[in-house]
Amino acid sequence: MPVALPKPHLIMTKTRTTGPESGLPGARHVRSSRNDRPYHYMVHSPHFAYEEYALHLGQYDRLSFYGEADAPPVTVHMYDCRENSPEYDRKLEIDVPADGSCVLAVPPGYAHWFEGLGSVTTRNDYSVLAPEDSSSPWNPLEDNATYPVETMRAGRPRTVANTVELPVPAQFLISKAVSRSWRGGATEQGVVATAEIDGELRRYYLDQELGRDRPELPGSDLATVGAAVGSYQSIRDDSYGIGANVGNGLADTMVCDLPGQWPRHFSAHPHLTLKLSPLLYDNPEMELQLVDRRADSPTFGATQVIPFPRDPRVVLTIEPGVLMRARGSGTLHYRVEYEVHDATARMPRLFVPVPDDALPPTFDPPGAALAETVVRELAYR
Predict the structure, then answer these.
(1) Mean per-residue pLDDT for 356-371?
(2) What is the pLDDT of residues 306-361, one digit of tens each?
(3) How many CA atoms lie within 13 A of 252 on its CB side?
(4) What local confidence, expressed as pLDDT, does residue 209 receive?
(5) Which of 23, 49, 176, 199 gives the lowest tally of CB atoms within 10 Å of its CB?
(6) Exposure pattern of 149-182 as b/e (b: 16+ CB <10 Å)?
(7) CA pair distance 360, 268, nearest whole angstrom
(8) Is the pTM value of this prediction over 0.70?
(9) pLDDT digits (tens, 9 = 90+) for 20-56
């Protein structure tokens, strides 16, 4: 019997909310994945509009959408282009909420086009499949064919989609290669070139000038807190693809209705390095109060209030042993990436609530960051 081919389907997400003893009380963790697959985000400007269908042979997309509270659903158009599918040439159309409540799974071989992505951010928790024929010229880094909408309406291509899922470490390796090529900013116009220098062939990534549009970085006086340009690719219409900034490739999507006053608690993470970045194209104003309580820090005991970045290309790094709380106005969508550090205890303390009227604790220096595979295994649970 022929193997049943996968079809597009919807998956409901899970949400966990932080309690009142947090520096960001009421923040909602929208879980679109068990963090056992690589991911990226696409941040769309208000005037963004796709004009083409995309078609992957090896990438299995799992898409969730995030917009403001009144954002209308995203309309997704799909054609089954797999020549061996009993539903070849069938068109599907579905409206997916832009509140992160659903994940739309799009198997390889389905051409897909979106309407209504202006001001909406997409998260893709994808997996990578290889062809059954090992001699196939398929390249996972060039797995994106595009077709104008009118061309696709006139006739559909016939494709043979990949069916063999790569091992998880291989999938994260591919994701890491992409994120590294985007580190500090890249554009769709960048090209790889080869030059011979002193008799040795060397490869270079040549990109257009990005200096004309560099994000503004908030300043920090704390040795344990810093801001930098993250891993991103500029695409047309002032929009961005946002990649991972940590080697393990893990990230959580968070949504928080910001309190106007400082919360009564700080959050501390004695064994986590956090990398925070906003997720929408237009983000509300927010302040972070940070207190350095790491014993080996040259700025131990110092306090600073800094603006949270409003540009999704900026990443704020908060090292272990820093107290943090936030205030602002509006609803903030943000990403949390993290590294887990070793501890002398059997299991490191990942979160410690600290009342604002209590004597602040002192935290020991963290150990080395745990191996990427270990952290992913912990994240699965």
Answers:
(1) 93
(2) 999 999 999 999 999 999 999 999 999 999 999 999 876 556 678 999 999 999 99
(3) 21
(4) 47
(5) 199
(6) eeebeeebeebbbbbeebeeeebbebbbebbebb
(7) 10
(8) yes
(9) 999 999 999 999 998 889 999 999 999 999 999 999 9
Residue type for position 43: V
Both tokens assigned to 260:
């106007």
